[in-house]
Amino acid sequence: MLQNPKRYTITAALPYTNGPIHIGHLAGVYVPSDIYSRYLRLQGRDVLFVCGSDEHGVAISMKAKKEGVTPQEVIDKYDGIIRKSFSDFGISFDNYSRTSAKVHHDTASEFFRTLYDKGDFIEEVTEQLYDAKADQFLADRFVVGTCPKCGNEEAYGDQCEKCGSTLNATDLINPKSTITGETPILKSTKHWFLPLDRYEDFLKEWILVGHKNDWKPNVYGQVKSWIDGGLEPRAVTRDLDWGIDVPVEGAEGKKLYVWFDAPIGYISSTKEWALREGKDWEPYWKDQDTKLVHFIGKDNIVFHCIIFPAMLKAEGSYILPDNVPANEFLNLEGNKLSTSKNWAVWLHEYLEEFPNQQDVLRYALTSNAPETKDNDFTWKDFQARNNNELVAIFGNFINRVVVLTNKYYNGVIPSPNTLSGVDEATLTELKAYPAVISSSVERYRFREALGELMNVARLGNKYLADEEPWKMIKTDEGRVQTQMYVALQIAAALSSLCEPFLPFTATKLSRILKIESPLSWSTISETSDLIPAGHQIGEAELLFAKIEDEEIQKQIDKLEATKTANIAENKKAEPQKEAIQFDDFAKMDLRVGTILEAEKMPKANKLLVLKVDTGIDVRTIVSGIAESFKPEDIVGKRVTVLVNLAPRALRGIESQGMILMSTNAEGKLVFVNPDTDGVANGETIN
């Protein structure tokens, strides 16, 4: 682990431009990387924080085919949505690029050519899956089939999303083309491979020995499992019509594999930044005094800890990542987040539906961050964290301090008198927090760091609750001056300490306290006079607003609607029953009827006793629909009745027919009934 680096290069995983950003992306990558970057800037460090849209590969082609547009139209659409979402949410990238940019095409091509000229690739003809009907080779995500490791029937050609195994398309059992649904054939094609097996010894020494004690256990464990299993050559080219051309002779119609070109996007984004800012890009990637940190999700660990480092090592002039603090996955309301199934909380929609509440989501995602294991986001937990923590603890403390200062001193910070033992102890404890929070952030424990930040607010609340200046003002105004001075020092410290985690709140609090430039954390650690006596503060404003049950229910209902739509879309009709003759059907006498009366059968939860006008007569029918309908709601309902069903006694009542029912997308019972007015009871259905 590099100590006291001269500069930091921080990368956040490039989001695919085949859809918007959702909370899983935020919790896994973008919020933690932003906290880390903001923190380092507050410490006066030289920081470069880069990212960009990942715009090549199969996912883009699939989206384009599905929407009936060109890949360029897809990437332009989602790049715009993603950029605006990140900006509005306050992710503080120094540069956000895109892999369709010329600087990236040039950088990736040059990187490939360097390795090619050095003889680092294996050129090999292999058999790949080919869709004869579509007349094209099938890249990983254009193939689905049964996972050979867990039996999941919807595994992709590169990965099983159920068990997490990395696959080759040819590993799948019963593969199918997602383009035509046809079973693909094997066909020979030439590709270039990066021989990862040549780098096994280097990776063992660099990671398994060198980073045994400072990399997160989930990252280290996954890398060790891969290396222990033996590394094999990995293709760096693909047969595709969308991406960066392979820059060598004999590679017509082939593109760089997206997992070769995407991480190079960090380098090209740096070049783009350097050109704009008039800086030299190379020290941020080639100087040994630079600390390189990759923020990613766990599905990208192998690419950032094995494949990309092997690429950098092969090239020879680049530094290697000092750390790759990957997070696990965030689930949503007990189910795995899914872009394709719309089971997500989309950032651009959140920003519209919860205006000016960016920090509430940042707080909820950080306090529940999946740092060591998968965690679950629920709207109820989101509401509780806002109302019970941000509003009740942080916001409450600031509001009381500002209101009392304006009430007692017209907003002018009073001069303290002699500090009591409690005052001294409180200010001493306050000085310790920058170091405590820093320690957690430096070890990538952002959830722990946020907890310590909230402890600063708790310190302030406890101080006010114990000292009770609103009571003391009646008997000892001099003592209240000291109490309010101490409380205001805590408020001032919070305005800076919260900035990495809650940047919008930091700006608002600084405006309320009229602090023009952020307090340095070293100042908070070293002095108790953070905001001096005589300083004029502003009027009170609520930092956070309570979120009501109605707002949360609206979000829950929105997810339930998505779940219902998914069920309807994926519901398969029951297989056809055994064939019958027309005479068999003709034996059934189906009539239109009307329910005249309905009541629950005593001691039977599922049964309703119905009086039905069949047009022939009025008869009793016992129906097992009591769990789906209230008796009073179905009186007058038009129904379809099987009238010649042999009578049957149910709990002592003779049932003389059967009501026809079906189920909707939610699995609820619905009546099968005529949809045209004027159809009389007793009309036959044939």
Uncertain segments of ≥5 residues (pLDDT<50)?
Answer: none
Helix amount: 40-55%
Major β-sheet profile: 6 strands, antiparallel
Calculate the mean pLDDT score and round it: 93
User: What coarse outline follows from CA principal-axis ratios?
Assistant: flat
Characterization of this structure:
- The N and C termini lie far apart (80 Å).
- Helix 11 crosses helix 12 (379-409).
- A hairpin with a 7-residue loop joins strand 17 and strand 18.
- This protein has 686 residues and is of the alpha+beta class.
- The mean pLDDT is 93.
- The protein contains 21 helices and 26 strands.
- 42% of the residues lie in helices and 17% in strands.
Chain-wise SSE layout:
Elements: E1 7-12, H1 23-42, E2 47-53, H2 58-67, H3 71-89, E3 95-98, H4 102-117, E4 122-131, E5 136-137, E6 143-146, E7 155-156, E8 173-177, E9 185-194, H5 200-209, H6 217-228, E10 234-235, E11 237-239, E12 254-256, H7 258-277, H8 283-286, E13 290-295, H9 301-315, E14 330-332, E15 335-336, H10 347-353, H11 358-367, E16 375-377, H12 379-409, H13 421-442, H14 446-467, H15 469-472, H16 477-497, H17 503-513, H18 521-526, H19 549-570, H20 582-586, E17 590-600, E18 608-613, E19 618-623, H21 631-634, E20 638-642, E21 648-650, E22 653-655, E23 658-659, E24 661-663, E25 669-671, E26 684-685
Parallel strand pairs: 1-2, 1-13, 2-3, 14-16
Antiparallel strand pairs: 4-5, 4-9, 6-7, 6-8, 9-10, 11-12, 14-15, 17-18, 17-20, 17-26, 18-19, 20-23, 21-22, 24-25
Helix pairs in contact: 2-3, 4-7, 5-6, 6-9, 7-9, 11-12, 12-14, 12-16, 13-14, 13-16, 14-16, 16-17
